[in-house]
């Protein structure tokens, strides 16, 4: 019972734990939105993990360049992460029109660039004054809002993006075409809507959100770029998007629930010494039970 109590209350037990839990949820919200955008268009972006990683790396190069010459390049860093992720995923949108399946191409493009980023971080960006395979700390980062935790202004930005996406799909003609093209291609063609027109923009937008999550990670969570910083964010985002289904606002409780479970598992690992396999089992069991009726709750929220 004490273990379960620690599992559920640990993520909220202090300012530091609360802020770090919300910070992890921020990354899930942003990357989860990227995965969901692809799903809603009838595509599957399986390269999110690499887009987060390479997008964050590109943002880091820009941030370090700005620090070197005394410029505030945070907005340019965010743009670099967004454009990098959009290009990586957008290439798959182009290839999809040629008959290549985006599940394969998004994954292969991301997987092929992972070692390149690892090498660049470890040998080209590495701070020689430290022992980590990481760059020097950035001088200018995303402002923190709940010190001493890692929570930054990226959290409200992620919420705004999801709410804005909800209104786009619910209240605009373009959002309606986008949804119909993804959920019912045959009906879309009957209404003179070509579903193939949405493959490239949807995959590019999906990659853009993943790249933005990479920027949030390096400039907000860690304050530097280190090898492996993505830490499974892209894969967790796929789970969050699948839980939310076709309901944009459902991404918020899905990310909060998934993020809280992940943080609770980490809390058990640190406080009790429980094995990773045991905490993963608890996390999986709770996640399964919590999502059995999830879609019914949101079936009227469109």
Q: What report would you give on this structure?
A:
- This protein is an all-alpha fold.
- It is globular.
- The chain has helices at 2-9, 15-40, 48-69, 74-97, 102-124, 154-171, 173-183, 185-190, 199-222, 233-244, 251-272, 276-291, 294-297.
- Helix content is 72%, strand content 0%.
- The model has no long low-confidence stretch (mean pLDDT 87).
- The chain is built from 13 helices and no strands.
- 47% of the residues are buried.
- Helix 3 (48-69) packs parallel to helix 5 (102-124).
- It has one domain (2-297): ABC transporter involved in vitamin B12 uptake, BtuC (Orthogonal Bundle).
Q: Quick recap of the structure?
A:
The chain is mainly α and 302 residues long. It is 72% helix and 0% strand.
Features:
0% strand; ABC transporter involved in vitamin B12 uptake, BtuC; single chain; 302 residues; mainly alpha
How does the SSE layout of this entry go?
Layout: H1 2-9, H2 15-40, H3 48-69, H4 74-97, H5 102-124, H6 154-171, H7 173-183, H8 185-190, H9 199-222, H10 233-244, H11 251-272, H12 276-291, H13 294-297
Helix pairs in contact: 1-11, 2-6, 2-9, 2-10, 2-11, 3-4, 3-5, 3-9, 3-10, 4-5, 4-9, 6-7, 10-11, 11-12
User: Over the alpha carbons, how many angstroms does the gyration radius reach?
Assistant: 19 Å
Portion in helices: over 70%
The biggest beta sheet is recorded as: none
Indicate the overall shape.
Answer: globular
**CATH topology (fold) name:** ABC transporter involved in vitamin B12 uptake, BtuC
Annotation, overall tally of beta strands: 0
CATH architecture assignment: Orthogonal Bundle
- The number of helical segments is 13
Cα distance spanning the termini? 39 Å
Order of helices and strands: HHHHHHHHHHHHH
Strand content range: under 5%
Unreliable spans = none
Kindly provide the name of the CATH class: Mainly Alpha
Structural class: mainly alpha
Average pLDDT works out at: 87
């Amino acid at each position: 019972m004490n273990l379960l109590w620690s599992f559920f209350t640990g993520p909220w037990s202090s300012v530091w734990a609360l802020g770090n839990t919300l910070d992890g949820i921020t990354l899930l919200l942003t990357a989860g939105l990227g995965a969901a955008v692809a799903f809603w268009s009838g595509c599957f972006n399986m390269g999110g993990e690499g887009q987060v990683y390479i997008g964050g790396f590109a943002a880091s190069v820009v941030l370090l360049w700005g620090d070197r010459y005394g410029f505030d390049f945070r907005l340019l860093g965010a743009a670099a992460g967004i454009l990098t992720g959009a290009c990586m995923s957008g290439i798959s949108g182009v290839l999809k029109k040629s008959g290549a399946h985006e599940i394969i191409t998004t994954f292969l493009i991301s997987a092929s660039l992972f070692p390149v980023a690892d090498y660049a971080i470890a040998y080209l960006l590495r701070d020689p004054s430290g022992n980590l395979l990481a760059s020097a700390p950035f001088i200018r980062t995303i402002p923190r809002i709940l010190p001493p935790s890692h929570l930054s202004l990226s959290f409200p930005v992620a919420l705004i993006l999801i709410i804005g996406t909800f209104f786009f799909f619910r209240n605009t003609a373009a959002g309606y075409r986008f949804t119909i093209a993804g959920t019912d291609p045959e009906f879309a063609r009957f209404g003179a809507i070509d579903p193939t027109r949405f493959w490239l923009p949807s995959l590019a937008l999906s990659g853009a959100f993943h790249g933005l999550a990479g920027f949030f990670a390096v400039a907000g969570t860690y304050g530097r770029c280190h090898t492996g910083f993505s830490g499974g964010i892209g894969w967790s985002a796929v789970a969050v998007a699948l839980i939310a289904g076709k309901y944009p606002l459902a991404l918020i409780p899905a990310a909060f629930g998934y993020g809280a479970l992940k943080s609770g598992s980490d809390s058990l690992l640190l406080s009790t010494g429980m094995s990773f396999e045991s905490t993963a089992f608890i996390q999986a069991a709770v996640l399964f039970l919590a999502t059995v009726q999830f879609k019914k709750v949101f079936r009227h929220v469109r």
